[in-house]
Amino acid sequence: EADIYQTPRYLVIGTGKKITLECSQTMGHDKMYWYQQDPGMELHLIHYSYGVNSTEKGDLSSESTVSRIRTEHFPLTLESARPSHTSQYLCASSAPLGGNLNTGELFFGEGSRLTVL
Amino acid sequence: AQSVTQLGSHVSVSEGALVLLRCNYSSSVPPYLFWYVQYPNQGLQLLLKYTSAATLVKGINGFEAEFKKSETSFHLTKPSAHMSDAAEYFCAVSDRGSARQLTFGSGTQLTVLP
Known about the structure:
The complex is a heterodimer. Chain A has no helices and 11 strands. Chain A is mostly beta strands. Chain A has strands at 4-7, 10-13, 19-25, 31-37, 43-51, 54-57, 65-66, 76-78, 87-94, 107-108, 112-116. In chain A, strand 4 and strand 5 (43-51) form a beta hairpin. Chain B is mainly beta. Chain B is 0% helix and 54% strand. Chain B has strands spanning 3-5, 10-14, 19-21, 24-26, 31-38, 44-50, 56-58, 64-68, 73-78, 87-95, 102-104, 108-113. The relative contact order of chain B is 0.34. The chains are: A mainly beta, B mainly beta. Chain A binds chain B through residues 6, 31, 33, 40-43, 45, 48, 50, 90, 92, 94, 97, 100, 103-111, 113, and chain B through 32, 34, 36, 41-46, 49, 51, 88, 90, 92, 94, 96, 99-102, 104-107, 109.
């Protein structure tokens, strides 16, 4: 059972509000990721981090920002939410590639479903 | 760069019938390969993974997948579908030379008919 947690699970807010989606993991993983997924659609990587104070943008351009001040915590922030931000956001973490045990598999949280009215 | 192609965005089978979900990959180096399952309103859960040991990999819930290098395929099968198998299934490849971890396919929605 993966130890990665996302809050809130569901959030409905109005346009222009600032929101932060929280993601925490207790596995000591250095690598963490944020994916965006529309219903029934594929996953798009929007942010990733290789460790504390390391963040990079992913394949899909996103107006959100992330921070990584602590190993276990990787929050995602939208300064001014818009209806186009309505989606499911999935957080994941992984141990580094290499060795017989670390095959790069990702451990996912249960997701945060954001609806912007 | 690696890529993954899942043939068929929607697959329907009858309860008790064989499940076959197709996945083909391209990778410049021998890959690690994964199948994930996603139930409605949840995150992704690892079903099974290929890590260059046995080519036939058994996973949870009775699923298995066979790595075929000559066909660059990693198809997912289950002999007898159950209603609880209805979900979205994602194939993913991890290129050992890549720092970006996993590349996901576009997913296959499995429907199980009574």
